[in-house]
Design brief:
Blueprint: E1 2-11, E2 20-22, E3 24-28, E4 31-32, E5 39-42, E6 64-67, E7 80-83, E8 89-91, H1 97-105, E9 109-112, E10 120-125, E11 136-141, E12 153-157, H2 158-167, E13 182-186, E14 202-205, E15 209-218, H3 235-244, E16 247-256, E17 258-261, E18 265-267
Parallel strand pairs: 12-13
Antiparallel strand pairs: 1-2, 1-13, 1-18, 3-4, 3-17, 5-9, 6-7, 7-8, 10-11, 12-16, 14-15, 14-18, 15-16
Length: about 270
């Protein structure tokens, strides 16, 4: 019996930039096809540029990345178009893309299309009770050979966002703050942090895709940052820390790939 319906799909062609909303996409063993396949690398440190370090990278969320054509399974990924904060456009296949992005971000960067075996990034931990660290900067390892922080698919239910909104009504718990790949609306009337109970279980989406829910998603300073019309709000992360151990959404691995579409039914096979 279905427990949810897919209501939104998001892909982020360049790590820590704004992404693109989809109607349908292929899911592979590396998540949504084309997701986080590019990243900026700081030439000085060799670390992946991340909005998790907003003092060093304060304008990453002012850039948006989209594929010029929909990626197709089994083919080379198409070029990515990046809209800069001033509205200018630059493509990933242009010879001066690194120079343009370096000038826009104020640091020398390279747009990498393949991840190193041991990628890492810097993460700032704000002074919020419940975080592993407070008011400090740490070096964090990433999933080997990828530009993912942890799991290759991030799922989030609208029930969780609605529950957080009730707990902290002053905040805007917009899905964009949490950068999920797949957003689900529950059909069984459950409320609260529902997806936390799915850890360790398989999830069937539509007729093809099967995911394995691996662990909760621990949130970070990125959820508090300004983007588009969303204001900076440390209360977003504070609410997650106070009420759900900083967890919002879950990570998943891919047991079986295929296509996922808006409107697909979601079930929890026994």
């Amino acid at each position: 019996m279905p427990v949810a319906t897919v209501v939104a799909l998001w892909r982020y062609p360049v790590k820590s930039m704004l992404g693109e909303q989809l109607q349908a996409t292929d899911v592979t063993d590396r998540g949504l096809l084309g997701d986080r396949r590019h990243a900026l690398v700081d030439r000085e440190t060799g670390k992946v540029a991340s909005a998790k370090s907003p003092r060093k990278w304060p304008t990453l969320f002012a850039h948006r990345a989209t594929y010029l054509e929909p990626p197709t399974e089994g083919h080379v990924l198409p070029a990515v178009e990046i809209q800069l904060r001033d509205g200018r456009l630059v493509r990933s296949d242009e010879t001066d893309v690194d120079r343009v992005l370096s000038a826009a971000l104020g640091r020398e960067v390279t747009l990498d299309r393949s991840a190193p075996e041991a990628p890492s990034l810097e993460e700032y931990w704000p002074d919020i009770e419940g975080l592993d660290h407070r008011d400090t900067l740490t070096d964090e390892t990433m999933a080997p050979g990828t530009f993912f922080d942890s799991g290759v698919v991030h799922l989030l239910t609208t029930a969780t966002l609605e529950h957080l909104g009730q707990l902290y009504p002053e905040g805007r718990f917009d899905v964009r703050r949490f950068r999920p790949n797949i957003v689900l609306a529950l059909t069984n009337g459950q409320a609260g942090f529902v997806e936390d109970a799915w850890v360790g279980r398989s999830l069937a989406i539509g007729d093809q895709v099967r995911l394995r829910i691996t662990k909760p998603c621990q949130r970070c300073v990125m959820t508090t940052l300004e983007q588009d019309d969303l204001p900076k709000d440390p209360g977003i992360l504070r609410a997650a820390a106070q009420h759900n151990h900083v967890r919002v959404g879950v990570y998943a691995s891919v047991e079986r790939g295929g296509q996922v579409r808006i409107g697909d039914e979601v079930s929890l096979p026994r």
